[in-house]
C-alpha cells in the first residue's frame, strides 16, 4: 500500500484514541468520576438530567469505555420509563458517534484491527446482503465485543440509518434489563459497586 499522509494521520488518531481509553480505564478513578457525575445530575440538573445522561454516552462509547453504569444510573435516578428512554437514546447516539468516527478519520485503524476478529469476515459478507438484519442480530446476540463492534461495522457497507435503527432495537432488551435493575437499587454507591472489575474484564476481552 502506498504511503499517504492523510492515511497515516487517520491511523495515528485511531491509535491515540485507543491508547487514551486504555490509560483512562486503568489509571483514572473512572468509578468515582462516574459516580460523582451521576450525583451531580441528581442534585443539579432537574428536568435536564435525562438529556445530559444520554449525551454522556458519546465520549464513553467513542473511547470504548463500558457505559453500563450510566444505564443503571438512569434507572436509579429517573425510574423505568424516563430512564429507559434516556439510556436507549444515549446508547444509540454513542454507538453512532463511534460508527461515524470509524467510517471517517478512524477508518485505516479499524481496517488494521479487522484481522484480529476472524469471525467478522463472515459478518462483513453477510451485511452486504442484509445489513439491517445482521446488525440487529449482532446487538441481540453479541458474538463480538460491543465497543469494538461499533467500529468494525463502520467499515462495512451498512447504511447509517440501517445501523442506527438496528442498533437501537437490538440494544433495547439489555438496556431495559439494566434500567430495571437500576430502579431496584437503594443507594447511588450500589450503581458503581463492582463496576471496575467488570469494566476491566470487558476492556481486556475487546
UniProtKB/TrEMBL annotation:
<dbReference type="Pfam" id="PF09335">
    <property type="entry name" value="VTT_dom"/>
</dbReference>
<dbReference type="GO" id="GO:0005886">
    <property type="term" value="C:plasma membrane"/>
</dbReference>
<protein>
    <recommendedName>
        <fullName>VTT domain-containing protein</fullName>
    </recommendedName>
</protein>
<feature type="domain" description="VTT">
    <location>
        <begin position="65"/>
        <end position="183"/>
    </location>
</feature>
<feature type="transmembrane region" description="Helical">
    <location>
        <begin position="12"/>
        <end position="30"/>
    </location>
</feature>
<keyword id="KW-1133">Transmembrane helix</keyword>
<feature type="transmembrane region" description="Helical">
    <location>
        <begin position="122"/>
        <end position="140"/>
    </location>
</feature>
<feature type="transmembrane region" description="Helical">
    <location>
        <begin position="51"/>
        <end position="70"/>
    </location>
</feature>
<keyword id="KW-1003">Cell membrane</keyword>
<feature type="transmembrane region" description="Helical">
    <location>
        <begin position="160"/>
        <end position="181"/>
    </location>
</feature>
<keyword id="KW-0812">Transmembrane</keyword>
<feature type="transmembrane region" description="Helical">
    <location>
        <begin position="76"/>
        <end position="101"/>
    </location>
</feature>
<keyword id="KW-0472">Membrane</keyword>
<dbReference type="InterPro" id="IPR015414">
    <property type="entry name" value="TMEM64"/>
</dbReference>
<dbReference type="InterPro" id="IPR032816">
    <property type="entry name" value="VTT_dom"/>
</dbReference>
Amino acid at each position: 500500500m502506498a504511503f499517504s499522509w492523510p492515511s497515516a494521520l487517520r491511523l495515528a488518531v485511531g491509535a491515540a484514541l485507543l491508547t487514551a481509553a486504555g490509560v483512562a480505564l486503568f489509571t483514572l478513578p473512572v468509578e468515582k468520576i462516574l459516580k460523582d457525575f451521576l450525583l451531580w445530575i441528581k442534585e443539579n440538573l432537574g428536568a435536564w438530567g435525562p438529556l445530559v445522561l444520554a449525551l454522556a454516552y458519546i465520549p464513553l462509547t467513542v473511547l470504548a469505555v463500558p457505559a453500563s453504569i450510566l444505564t443503571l444510573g438512569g434507572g436509579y435516578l429517573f425510574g423505568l420509563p424516563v430512564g429507559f428512554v434516556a439510556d436507549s437514546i444515549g446508547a444509540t447516539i454513542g454507538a453512532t458517534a463511534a460508527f461515524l468516527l470509524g467510517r471517517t478519520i478512524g477508518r485505516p485503524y479499524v481496517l488494521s484491527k479487522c484481522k484480529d476478529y476472524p469471525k467478522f469476515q463472515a459478518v462483513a459478507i453477510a451485511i452486504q446482503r442484509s445489513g439491517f438484519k445482521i446488525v440487529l442480530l449482532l446487538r441481540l446476540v453479541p458474538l463480538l465485543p460491543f465497543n469494538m463492534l461499533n467500529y468494525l461495522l463502520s467499515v462495512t457497507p451498512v447504511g447509517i440509518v440501517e445501523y442506527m435503527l438496528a442498533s437501537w432495537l437490538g440494544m433495547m432488551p439489555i438496556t431495559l434489563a439494566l434500567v430495571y435493575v437500576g430502579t431496584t437499587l437503594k443507594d447511588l454507591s450500589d450503581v458503581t459497586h463492582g463496576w471496575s472489575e467488570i469494566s476491566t474484564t470487558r476492556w481486556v476481552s475487546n
